[in-house]
Design brief:
Blueprint (H helix, E strand, L loop, with lengths): L1 E3 H5 L10 H10 L3 E6 L9 E13 L5 E8 L19 E6 L9 E5 L4 E2 L3 E2 L3 E3 L2 E3 L2 E2 L2 H4 L24 H4 L6 E5 L10 H12 L6 H5 L11 E3 L11 E10 L9 H9 L7 H13 L4 E4 L7 E5 L5 E3 L5 E3 L5 E5 L2 E5 L3 E2 L12 E8 L1 H11 L4 H8 L6 H16 L2 E2 L4 E4 L7 E3 L3 H6 L5 H11 L2 E5 L2 E5 L10 H12 L19 H15 L3 E2 L5 E2 L1 H7 L23 E2 L4 H13 L5 E8 L21 H9 L6 E8 L16 H15 L4 E4 L5 E10 L5 E8 L1 H6 L7 E6 H7 L15 E10 L4 H12 L3 E10 L8 E10 L8 H19 L2 E2 L1
Parallel strand pairs: 13-16, 28-31
Antiparallel strand pairs: 1-12, 2-12, 3-4, 3-6, 4-5, 6-11, 7-8, 9-10, 14-22, 14-23, 14-24, 15-22, 16-19, 17-18, 19-20, 20-21, 25-27, 26-27, 29-30, 31-32, 32-36, 33-34, 34-35, 35-36, 37-39, 37-40, 38-39
Helix pairs in contact: 2-5, 7-8, 8-11, 9-10, 13-14, 15-19, 22-23
Length: 847
């Protein structure tokens, strides 16, 4: 909200020498936020005066243009020029070349003399052009930086002005003003007006506040006004769309009359452009009082105005000339011809005030904030009116705002006001809040005497009466945000000064710290980062094809996924069932930018819907739903387990003069999966697996000892990598962390370390080629018994020496006891038992 200081001074005691920075410093004290300072004169300097065109000789040019060679008097007739400068004629008559044609000799204009500077650092100096020396410029509103009109120069008579020659044009155009811009938070909607900000300035400085509402007064009805009906037989979600509608009629007005400079200047400083007198008056009153109003061409209305909800299939052409399909929740202003506008958001083009309008109907109404907010978002129609209605407008001033509009229209545009006043609706019930004694002291931590509480609340505009040792408070009508006693305490603290609140360090509440799941998750993510992987985040929105490929192991199997109602893009319209698609997108982007060696991981939730997903009907807003309704909503939320995934490509390390890096492969993905299990204290069982997104022969299925499936690890399918523009080989893994956490023990106990020496034995077994190495390893572990500490595969061989369809697996076995040094016979006996079990299960032959 931009606050012109000259306007603010009409209602608050702002010192004449106060700057915009001074005003913002005071407003910050009462909780408003400073934004910026706006000064038109920062970009307008030098001699800019009122001049009169004495002659304008049209001279056609060879380029097809016709220019005017003008003689312009810039001092009163009979006087000489007192300004001194290069190009300024002492006679007071300047020769100026002008390309515009919307003026005549005798017109008074704005002349920028040599030495002046216009917006954009446009410096005016004598220059030769079109065969003349042009000593100055006749300015347009765009060149002065006060508007967008560039159809011609600014003729002062069109603004109703007849100033003295040579006078300061910036003073005539009311440009010697500045504005302080503040940020208005959603709960302080009353500050979207000069009235509200002036009141806050008075709070901050302890000075008097002059309420413009008191000066305007309410109209007194002396006859029937224009017929208006509020049709609220079916309120939406318990909210009545319109609870007050005031209408006034002005006849015989001339809409072509110019908006006076003092008004257009204030509108411009407030961030609004001047459009026409009726529109400018409506905007001016909105900025002054905070109550939006709207003007209709009375001759274009057909019968009674009805405030109602939209009918199915209705459309409306709004003031921006767009045809909008209306929703059945939209609140409309309508008449016998149909919709006239979307209430509180934007009017319709059919009844817009134009240059031929003579009779005007002024609307000033009060609408439900929630309904206005929904209509604005639904139609993507932000407006200054909706901005205020969404935050709450004072119900009490609708009639005052209408009175102010008709006064300005008759004063500036002529015409007369009908005696009749339409004022229909029902005043909302008053909110009464009980404020217990010492409640403010207990909540804020600073002692507030009873008189301080009363003074602060009465200064706020509330009605305060003593009640049960404390106070019973009725908030003012413009403070819709005050609903509970904590709201009142916040205002007491704000008006008393935040700087008076002591700084005390709160005592940390007792607690048990992070939960077990939180600790495990943090430990897991840190371990992956410590092992050299880089954590990334990707969007959870994917394509249907991504879910079909990564979400199910078998090609063509059904995959259920949640479709988004309002996706960011039509292609990525589903929630992910796997983390890998987003992770691969990140890898592709990095690979395309030259990062060839990648090791990335991500942890996040996936959405796995099962069965029926609740109801599409949402409970009514504005009140807490019953427990059974909340339970039904929660039952409809799909399963969202935490997954962790990693992808690796390129080399595992940087090359060096004494080091040759290794290309990352399926074993690296398996190592990352094992690391996840080790960190959580869960042993993963590895077996040969198949998945349509993974390489047919380089895929491991991971599960728990109980047989519960956990995830996959291996290398991705070459065709998938080629289609996505990724390297030819890329390793990946994805695990369900929730399953692992559930299987993990509450406390991970470290295995006892034996102090006795280890005994090692190697064994090479020839088995059928289709027997997984992991199955043989697990068999050796089982057969060796408790003396076996570790078993690792260190060599695989397949060739003619061992026969077709067979392979040799070489394992290193480590034996150790906790109470003694093992003998060679004990280690050999355990090794033999392991081999015997492998022979029994797989027909293994020892090499």
């Amino acid at each position: 909200m931009r606050i012109p200081l000259s306007w603010l001074r009409e209602h608050a005691q702002v010192p004449t020498d106060a700057t915009a920075e001074d005003v913002m410093a005071e407003l910050v004290r009462v909780g408003l936020e400073e934004e910026d300072v706006h000064r038109p004169l920062d970009e307008l300097t030098g001699p800019i005066v009122v001049g009169q065109v004495l002659s304008a000789e049209k001279e056609p040019q060879s380029n097809g243009k016709t220019i005017n060679w003008c003689q312009v008097r810039v001092v009163p007739e009979g006087q000489t020029q007192t300004l001194i400068g290069d190009g300024i004629d002492p006679s007071g008559v300047q020769g100026i070349v002008c390309g515009a044609h919307n003026f005549e000799p005798g017109d008074k204009v704005v002349v920028t003399l040599p030495g002046s500077v216009l917006p954009g650092d446009f410096r005016i100096s004598p220059r030769k052009t079109y065969g003349h020396v042009s000593a100055g410029m006749i300015a347009s509103v765009r060149e002065l930086g006060i508007g967008e009109d560039h159809e011609g120069i600014l003729v002062l008579s069109t603004l109703g002005l007849d100033p003295e020659l040579g006078s300061d044009a910036l003073e005539v155009l009311a440009l010697h003003d500045e504005a302080a811009e503040i940020n208005v938070t959603p709960d302080r909607g009353y500050c979207f007006s000069i009235r509200g900000v002036a009141r806050e300035y008075a709070h901050a400085t302890g000075t008097a506040f002059t309420d413009p509402v008191a000066a305007i007064g309410s109209p007194v009805a002396s006859g029937a006004g224009y017929p208006v009906t509020l049709d609220e037989t079916a309120p939406i979600r318990g909210n009545v769309g319109c609870d007050r509608f005031v209408a006034r009629v002005v006849r015989g007005m001339d809409p072509s009359r110019p908006t006076p400079p003092w008004m257009s200047s204030r509108l411009r400083l407030a961030g609004m452009r001047s459009v026409s007198l009726p529109v400018d008056v409506s905007n001016y009153v909105m900025l002054e009082l905070g109550q939006p109003t709207h003007c209709y061409d009375l001759d274009k209305l057909e019968g009674t105005i009805v405030v109602r909800r939209a009918h199915p299939g209705e459309t409306l052409t709004t003031l921006d000339e767009k045809v909008r399909s209306l929703h059945e929740e939209d609140l409309l202003i309508a008449d016998g011809s149909g919709p006239l506008g979307i209430a509180g958001v934007m009017g319709g083009a059919a009844t817009e005030v134009s240059g031929s309008t003579r009779d005007v109907l002024v609307e000033s109404a009060h609408f439900d904030p929630i309904g206005i907010a929904r209509a604005r978002r639904r139609h993507k129609l932000p407006s200054e009116a909706s901005k205020r209605f969404e935050r709450g407008v004072d119900w009490q001033i609708a009639d005052v705002a209408a009175q102010r509009v008709v006064e300005l229209l008759t004063q500036l545009g002529g015409g007369t006001v009908d005696d009749g006043v339409t004022d229909v609706g029902m005043e909302p019930g008053q909110v009464v809040i009980d404020l217990p004694p010492d409640f403010a002291t207990q909540l804020v931590g600073r002692v507030f005497a009873a008189h301080e509480v009363r003074d602060a609340l009465e200064d706020l505009g509330a009605v305060v009466v003593e009640h049960d040792g404390g106070f019973r408070v009725t908030p003012p009508s413009w403070r819709m945000d005050l609903r509970i006693k904590e709201d009142l305490v916040e205002e007491i603290a704000r008006l008393s000064g935040y700087e008076t609140i002591p700084s005390t360090l709160p005592t940390a509440p007792p607690g048990r710290g992070l939960t077990r799941v939180q600790q495990q998750r943090r430990r897991l993510l840190q371990a992956l980062a410590d092992s050299g992987l880089t954590e990334v985040l990707s969007y959870p929105f994917v394509t249907k094809q991504d879910n079909d490929v990564f979400g199910v192991a078998t090609l063509g199997a059904e995959r259920r996924a949640v479709r988004l109602a309002n996706p960011l893009s039509d292609e990525q319209g589903f929630l992910r069932t796997s983390i890998l698609p987003g992770l691969l997108d990140v890898a592709r982007r990095n690979h395309a930018r030259g990062f060839r060696d990648l090791a990335l991981y991500e942890a996040g939730q996936v959405v796995l819907p099962e069965g029926e997903l609740g109801s599409a009907v949402l409970p009514a807003s504005g009140r807490l739903p019953a427990d059974d309704v909340l339970d039904a909503l929660l039952d409809g939320v799909p399963n969202q387990p935490l997954h962790i995934a990693a992808v690796m490509a390129g080399y595992d390390s940087a090359a060096g003069f004494d080091h040759a890096p290794r290309m990352q492969d399926w074993s690296d993905a398996l190592d990352v999966a094992r690391l996840v299990g080790d960190v959580l204290g869960v042993e993963l069982v590895i077996s040969q697996g198949t998945h349509q997104a993974f390489h047919p022969g380089r895929t491991a299925a991971l599960s728990l000892r109980s047989g519960e499936f956990v995830g996959y690890a291996g290398e991705l399918h070459p065709k998938l990598l080629a289609k996505r523009g990724l390297p030819e080989r890329m390793a990946a893994m994805e695990l369900n962390v929730d399953v692992l956490v559930d299987a993990a023990a509450d406390v991970v106990v470290a295995r006892t370390i034996s102090t006795y020496p280890v005994a090692t034995q190697d064994v090479a077994l020839v088995v059928p080629a289709d027997v997984p190495a992991e199955a043989v390893r697990e068999t050796l572990r089982e057969g060796a018994g408790e003396l076996l500490e570790d078993v690792r595969l260190f060599d695989v061989y397949a060739g003619s020496a061992i026969g077709e369809g067979r392979k040799s697996l070489a394992f290193g076995l480590r034996f150790r006891a906790f109470d003694r040094t093992l003998t060679a016979d004990e280690a050999s006996e355990a090794r033999s038992a392991a081999v015997e079990l492998a022979v029994e299960r797989f027909g293994a032959v020892q090499r």
